[in-house]
Please model this.
Amino acid sequence: MTDYAKAFDYGLTEEQLALKHSAIEFTKREVSPHIEQWERDGEIPREFQKKLAAAGLIAVGLPEEAGGDGGTLTDLCVMQEGFMSAGWSGGLMASAFTHGIALPHLIQHGSPELIDRYVRPTLAGDMIGSLGVTEPGTGSDVAGLTTRAVRDGDEWVINGAKMFITSSVRGDFVTTAVRTADTGAHGISMIVVPAYGPDGQRTPGFSVSRKLDKMGWLASDTGELTYDNVRVPYSNLIGEENHGFYYIAENFVVERIWLATMGYGHAMRCLQLAAQYCQDRVAFGKPLAANQVVRQKLTEMHRQVAVARSYTLEVARRHDAGEVVVAEACLAKETAVDTAVAVADMAVQLHGGMGYMRETEVERHFRDARLLPIGGGSTEVLADLAARHLGYAAAQG
Model:
């Protein structure tokens, strides 16, 4: 296959190029031979986390003092670009890096004991964490969550349910958003809920009530969780009581840039696959790429990928420089995930009937990309958030 991905190596330092290429080589060795089986299994093997850690690819962008490898958000984007351009599925990316949303609250606000118990083992590949925010009745409306934690002496008693929780079936703990006061966003706290006790048995009252069957992200084990009088130590509270909403909000920028990178990564891979297919596929006595309309479509796909990539990396670099980029992260996600959906659709079209077959990789990207305008804050909600930050919202009288 022609290496069309090299067209998107520009703008990176030598170190970042080396990181991207390490991610690509790792994919060839450890992912490509197995990904179709993982998609069929509906989850990835636990030992994959150890392989990522051994390759130095699990903790990029996380602080060394908490067990990470250091680096910036831009470095994380570059590594993810390498993975996606080499053929990772959305479900694989979500499951392998769920710690990217499960750990930041602990790293930033957790006690040294919580960091030693959960963060370091996760970044060594020995544990799997997930983030429990979304509920059956609340998605983007984080302030409306109803799962409640009540203090009882030296313990919290937790009751409620969580929905669409990535890596929760395989997971060892859930960084759980709970209501600890009746004051909307001001009454939310973050508590670590272990899935298993020291004896290896399920934490009483905590259960994965069902594993969810999805359109895409098939390699990601996604579950619905039930908390029925679950008791955990009071010391499992992350940071201060009733500050959880702010802890969640301060990590939204990174999560949205991460999803934006996944979006243009899907599109980049679809462009590669479509370009190669159009060179190889002969119809009416000539390659598809000999047709002007096909070349124009490929060029349009390239344009959309280039725009989404450039904007996403610009916002990531501005975040690394300390700028407030709440609105820009929303817009980068919208730009990149819309690109993912559009380019995947064009790739399927260029593949013709084969593009509709499960045996064709573009079909998988088409399904996986459709989640991105929904997850991590829907496009509609984020557009309104961006409007408020940009000063376009009407004053409320």
Observations:
- The first strand starts at residue 129 and ends at 132.
- Residues 128-242 form a domain with the Butyryl-CoA Dehydrogenase, subunit A; domain 2 fold (CATH 2.40.110.10).
